[in-house]
Amino acid sequence: MRRITTIIAAFLLAAALLQAQEQKIIPIETESTSLILVVRNNGEVQQLYYGSKVNASEFAAVPQRAGRYSSGFSAYPATGGRYQGEPALHLQYANGNHNTELYYSGLETRRRGDVTTTEIRLKDPVTSVEVSLFYDAYFKEDVILSHSVIRNGGKSPLRMLSYASGAISLRSDRYLLSHVHGGWAQEMQLENELLTHDTKVLESRRGTQNTQVGNPSFLLSLGTSELNEDSGDVVAGAFAWSGNYRISFERDPDDRLNIIAGINPFASAYPLAAGDSFTTPEMIWTFSSQGAGGASRNLHRWARNYGVYGGGNINPILLNSWEGAYFSFTTQTLINMIDDAASMGLEMFVLDDGWFGNEYPRNRDNAGLGDWQVNVTKLPEGMDYIASYAHSKGLKFGIWIEPEMVNPNSVLAHTHPDWVVQSPGREQYQVRNQWVLDLSNPAVQDFVYGIFDDVMKLSPAIDYVKWDCNRPVESFGSPYLGTDQDRFYVEYCQGFYKVMERIRAKYPDVLVQCCSSGGGRVDYGALSYFNEVWTSDDTDGYERVLMQYGTSLIYPACVMAAHVSAVPNHQSRNVTPLKFRFDVACQGRLGLELQPKLLEESELALVNRCVESYKTYRDVVFTGDLYRLGTPYGNDFYGMMYVSPDKRKAVVYTYCLRFNALGGEGHSFKLKGLDPARRYKVTEQNVNRSCWWGNGRSFTGAFLESGAFNPSLPSLYSSAVFVLEAE
């Protein structure tokens, strides 16, 4: 009996080894991570592993084992065969069939600098559909981008019902999903939830402003019920698309978690004629064994190097006219604000809404959108006069536009009603008294590009454009697309990108902010064309602490426009100290959103001091590594810091968000990211008397990371900013 058992064991081992020999391992590797795929002996490509760096060759010995509910997780699961889960690809063929089975047909690897691209080719032998899976591995950043190219190799047209950009499978006993939610003036609010069995979905169907109430991004903590900033395995993802998105998290009965990310299939069944192909947007993935902080830093480094237009460049400190003047201004109003901006040491003045429209003047938000001519009543001297004056005062000049929108009260709406997104025979709903222009229409794309081009021609002194988008799509429909309305949501976003590509080809050096009622378009699809985003219309200091924390989970500080505004705050009506507002806004690209004439002399002195201080350390804000010192949720105190890549300089921000009687005795913050052996001189900014006993002295990084750093923050909205410089 023992001999028979031995023979059987030997036979099984030989079979496993034979199978391993027939399997092809495909490693996708960065400096610290591995994504391991395998070509099974039947030709199916499956994912075996994603996590910390491993020896890929050892996975060749891993046998294929069928789970109770699947035969393993496909690298790009399609509707068909034995797969019953959420599909990455769902096609419907001309004969009505829905089944697709993809098998390996080839592999190609290319390297460009530190980026390695792996293309895995798949094919359905029955329908001749071909799919190429692309993985771009960014070695130093530990980031992997995935997208797919789907080609109809058959002789008949088909319809793509789902066409994801990437899929990842994970194994753990617990999955903590961290994502953001919100609304206008309440963007980027963190929410944590343990994933149960079945499917959790993050999605948007808004057409535009797709990040106003959520974001196509997440952090996933493995094997824990808590979001840990510094330790533990975390997978993070972000979808680079400014249209409708869908990210699904399916925990199957075998406790495998399958993540599918891509364009939302809602009302977007996309036709693919014989011989045609479709390229999906990029899905961005990273893994860190150093908690949420490590995952964020990976994404930030990638974004500064590759993902953000002009990423890491230092953008100017500005005064924006909106909350200081709204629609009511003259040339002299703007000249006075420019003079004030220059006297405060700012670097740019931005003229916001209200400067255009003559037949339908833009005196409120109910008229003028679409008619982008300078209003001769408000600004008879013209735009070049104002922009050139700003330059004469040593300031750059910026201007606001909202080119995707039109007011019913406009020449454009009367001339081209067919250019408006609409459903025939139904009411054309207004939001903020405006309609959406149909960017799926090439003629509208030309018009929108022409708006930007014509505005730039108003003056050679225009350096910056604030691009707004103040409403979502409702009752969607495109006269241009006729009966093929399922293409609308996809082609609107593609049309937006086509416009931006033309703009960047002609105006590569113009700074462009992506604003969408604040945080309505904060995604890496838009950021490949824009230098920064307007984080939120809510400029309240306390609310911005929460929103900037949520934004920092995925997006770097260099894109985060953060302004100091008047009190009571125009959105929240909250009253916070001016220094607190500065200490919060200095986490990102600093700006002011107020009327300088209303500031008192003591406040102007503090503005000058804070602006000059910020200039001395903002290089660390724009290019440094972020370390969050806890969380602002549920805590009396919160801190965060940026550390330069060479660890020679850092800036630390600390806040009291809720009164704590012990705050005056000093709250302990364990600083992070410093060189333990180096000595750092610590200098508090913008105060005559420091709130920390060690101010002006030098300490080792190890001491500062020990918890001995304990500034006194005795009252609600107490705050302190410290600069650390290596000696």
What can you see in these coordinates?
The chain is of the alpha+beta class and 727 residues long. It has three domains: 2-58 and 72-307, Beta-galactosidase, Chain A, domain 5 (Distorted Sandwich); 318-534, TIM Barrel, CATH 3.20.20; 544-571 and 595-727, Immunoglobulin-like (Sandwich). Strands 5, 6, 7, 8, 10, 11, 13, 14, 18 and 19 form a ten-stranded antiparallel sheet that branches. Strands 20-21-22-25-26-27-28-29 form an eight-stranded parallel barrel, surrounded by six helices. Strands 4, 9, 12, 15, 16 and 17 form a six-stranded antiparallel sheet that branches. A hairpin with a 5-residue loop joins strand 6 (115-123) and strand 7. The protein starts with a helix and ends with a strand.
